[in-house]
Amino acid sequence: MEDIDTLERLCRVIKSSALCGLGQTCPNPIATTLRYFKDEYIAHIKDKRCPAGVCSALLVYTILANKCTGCGACARSCPAGAISGEKKEPHVIDTAKCIKCGACIQKCKFDAIIKA
Fold it and tell me: Which domains, and CATH codes, for the chain?
């Protein structure tokens, strides 16, 4: 993957060209995480997802139609107005409007909303 290759190359160049010991060790944290957590980098860069579920920019909130009762609690709690649906019908989240605050998950008593 080009981005990861670039990071690895930058680590090597900085380490070999730094004029002081501190500068030579500067790329070590990145080189270490690349070595032991490369799959995390690939998930974030290539797949645009966060396996740990902590990078809000990469999260997508989804309502599971088979669990949604259409009670509307999630829609009423959404500050962005991103949730719509008819009463007693499964609701949907407009991902373009969703601000990923998690208010809907807290309000849903049926565990019908997931973030992935």
Answer: 2-45 (no CATH), 59-115 (3.30.70.20)
